Amino acid sequence: MRVSVDSGRCVCTGTCAFVAPQVFAIENHSELVVLRPEPDESLRDLVLDAEEQCPTGAIQVTG
User: Fold this and answer.
1) 17 neighbors 25 (Cβ within 8 angstroms)
2) Concatenated DSSP letters for the chain?
3) Is the dihedral of CA 39, 37, 6, 14 positive or negative?
4) Model confidence at 40, in pLDDT bands (50, 70, 90)?
5) Domains in the chain, CATH or no CATH each
């Protein structure tokens, strides 16, 4: 599984970091950081939940 974020669409609401803090973080109150671009399979459900809950659709999960 691979996680990517479209920085042009991301507005840093922090939803993804709340849902999957092992994978996403907000730094400097304005920048989303993908901590694990290829997270373990054990995190799949959390990552997919974060993708679904992203209000701007900036998160993409493949694989």
Assistant:
1) yes
2) -EEEE-TTT----SHHHHH-TTTEEEETTTEEEES-SS--GGGHHHHHHHHHH-TT--EEEE-
3) positive
4) very high
5) 2-62 (3.30.70.20)
